[in-house]
Amino acid sequence: MKKPPDFHLKLQLAVSLAVATAAFGLPVVLNPGTAAAAAPQECSSTPFTSKSATRYRVPAVVRVPDGRLFVFAEKRNDNADNDDDGDFDIAMKTSTDGGCTWGGEKIVADHGKLRVSNPVPVYVPARDKVLLITTVKTKDSSARTGYRNYMHQQWIDTDGGSFTSLTSGRVTVPNWRPGLTGPGHGIVLTKGSHAGRIIFAMGYTENDKRTARGVYSDDNGATWQIGYDRAASGKQQLIEGSIAELPDGRLLTAYRDNGKGVSKPGSNRMQAYSTNGGESIGSFSLMSGVKTVPVEGSLLQTTGGRELLLFSSPSNTSFKITSRRGMRIFVSTNNGQSWRSGLAVGSTTDPACYSDMVQLDAGTIGLVYENGYSPEKAYWNRIVFRQVSVSDLEQTLLPSLAKKKSPSVSGTHKVGKTVTASQGTWSPNATVTRYQWLRNGKEISSATSASYKLSKADKGKKVSVKVTVTSPGYQPSTATSSAKKVK
Asked: With 0-12 CB in 10 A as exposed, 13-18 as middle and 19+ as buried, what is 256?
């Protein structure tokens, strides 16, 4: 008997979850029929909310072995103008329940009225501490502007209770060029001759040319070296990088292109590979399949079982180039050679901007990102945290259903009458999992049955129905009927 098209994927996913779950020290449940159910219930939260002129920007997140999460953000004081300079501190919160709730805020880095920015956290196993790297604007008479950016590091206990001072953590790096660290998490390499190396991405400008750079330490943060140092080519202007270690031991680094990509949405994410632990990289190429506007993004390589390479970024390119909307997690199954559109997180019109990711356990990813309260609000209103199921990401790799005929609505479109939805025709045959009635394109609360009784609120409005269907081995699909005015 021929297996349904999703059988092997479900079996592979179940085994992957079992292996990875064991790696995270969790109970193993191996059941191909219920693999997706093995993931914990997803939650969302808001660790930081901007108020008045105090704005929280540029989040970063890291996990320690006991499961505690550390989330960081720039706390921009007196920042009503949303300028990228000023009195910036680094705020931190911790969570012991996977990011569903957060403890009180701590200011871990404060440099008076000057800027502390671009947090790069990384858990360092050899020291069993969180290393926090930041960029600190410092007075420097030798600089043309009177100020220069320097790298600082601090160590934070894994319970979040204490941390070293910012001022004692200034780092001397040979051949340093003032730039901006990260932002977003750094990594500790686990494979090959460079296992144990701490590395993060940064960028700097010299002679009006943006240059991508990696900075690494082979002695657990005692000293630092410059790794790859590659100027962008042509009209490229590369800033804000992220690094992931691939299953084969190579590194992939990805940068925002603020040059030619600024004028062409969807063509502004560049990536390059390293085969020597980040000491050098090859030429930059376009991240094929990643469609976004010029903005920071985060790479994450999942571990255990079937390993996915993920990239988070706003994905809506239908607005003006400076609009940042529609957070999405792109997925690659071939080490970044190509990217799939992956999973939309929230509405495609919701404000979304800088982001970072962390693996919480075998079945769950944590995503932290800048967000607004509604499509009308700005992305700097708050920073939100969302749990995302690995099985949902896996599901985006399945083929799509083919719509042969759109959903339709039968009945008289008149107040007091009942109208009924038809799911349309799909290939292969599909089952309806949800009806959602719409009034002028907006969801009608509690109107989720196959039939809907038209009310006075519908008079003069256009009513339609959105239908979600599924079929084994295929992605869920959604289609909407044509809208008809109610008399």
From this structure: buried
CA proximity to 60, closest of 136, 135, 124, 118: 118
Quick: pLDDT tens for 158-208: 999 999 999 888 998 998 888 999 999 999 999 999 999 999 999 998 777
d(CA 249, CA 304): 15
Place of tokens 């010299």: 206
Token duo for residue 218: 């082979």
Q: What is the pLDDT of residue 222?
A: 96
Q: In whole angstroms, give the CA distance from residue 139 to residue 332.
A: 43
Fold of 402-485: Immunoglobulin-like (2.60.40)
| Residue 216 bridge partners (DSSP) | 199, 225
Whether residue 74 contacts residue 119, with contact meaning beta carbons closer than 8 Å, is answered with yes
C-alpha Rg value of the chain to the nearest Å: 24
User: Which stretch of DSSP H or E encloses residue 158?
Assistant: none
Q: Which residue has the tokens 């320097």?
A: 150
CA atoms within 13 A on the CB side of 382: 14
- Would the pLDDT of 36 be above 60? no
Identify any residues that bridge with 91 across adjacent strands, giving them in sequence order. 73, 107
CB-based contacts of 90-93 (< 8 A; 24+ apart in sequence): 90/116, 90/117, 90/119, 90/132, 90/134, 91/48, 91/56, 92/156, 92/160, 93/47, 93/48
- Of 20, 15, 43, 18, the closest CA to residue 361 belongs to 20
User: What gap in Å lies between CA 442 and CA 252, rounded to an integer?
Assistant: 41
Find where tokens 């959903």 sit.
407
Task: Report the largest interatomic distance among the alpha carbons of the chain, rounded to a whole angstrom.
Answer: 79
Give me the CATH topology for the region 44-395.
Answer: Neuraminidase (2.120.10)
Q: In the block, which residue shows the tokens 């240059």?
A: 211
Q: How many CB atoms lie within 10 A of CB 283?
A: 9
Instruction: Show me where the domains of the chain are located.
Output: 7-38, 44-395, 402-485
Look at residue 8 and give its three-state secondary structure. helix
Going by pLDDT thresholds of 50, 70 and 90, the confidence category of residue 305 is low
**Do the domains at 44-395 and 402-485 have one common CATH topology?**
no
Residue positions counted in the chain: 487
